[in-house]
Amino acid sequence: MTQDMGLLSRVPPASEAVPNPVADTDDPLALGQAAYTAWAVLVLLIPAYAALILQGAGRVWLAFWSAAWVGYAVHLYVSAFWFFGGDFDWMQNTSRVSAFWPGMALLVWWPVDIALGLAGQRSVWVTVQRVALHIGAFVLFFGGSAVMGELTLVKVLGAALAATVLICAAMWWRGRHG
């Protein structure tokens, strides 16, 4: 619906490696699908983080966390094969992708955490890996949206993710030490 509105730039953001980028796509549909699937993941992460911080690794967290991973997998598929046409070298060397290898690690690690959640695993090492994974996912999504986002709406979504995490952490802390 929005492919002809000019919301998304066909020119990637400038970077140190490419200070004056040129248009890298003539397919606004693929560009939109890649962007909107990433934004959907960002929206799903907000309640996932709130639930984890305030309620622990329960059913609500697991539902949103799992849905966000499915969205992330769809985003990576759409980006890799529709937008980038399967050109992994291009994906690793464009300013449109802020963290290629950490993103791939997240793709593999995230479903492991979902499986542990589904199995009801609650050991110390599960908690440690879960916290590390959530910090990593937060850094990638906050950085890719609030810091490197091209649109104000995306920056606002990234800021909303950060605000949610901070407010929920403060509420959790206050509840334990209040």
Question: Could you explain the architecture of this structure?
Answer:
By secondary structure, this protein is mainly alpha-helical. The chain has 6 helices and no strands. α2 runs antiparallel to α4, α4 packs across α5 and α5 runs antiparallel to α6. The chain is globular, with a radius of gyration of 17 Å.
Q: SSE layout and pairings?
A:
Elements: H1 28-55, H2 59-83, H3 88-92, H4 100-118, H5 124-147, H6 152-177
Helix pairs in contact: 1-2, 1-6, 2-4, 4-5, 5-6
Quick summary of this structure?
The protein is an all-alpha fold.
What is the global morphology?
A: globular
| Count of distinct strands | 0
Radius of gyration: 17 Å
Major sheet description? none
Helix content: over 70%
Strand content: under 5%
Distance between the termini: 49 Å
Low-confidence stretches: 1-6
Give the SSE order as H and E letters.
Answer: HHHHHH
Mean pLDDT: 89
- What structural class should be given to the helix and strand makeup? mainly alpha
Number of helices: 6
Note the main attributes of this structure.
mainly alpha; globular; 6 helices; 0% strand
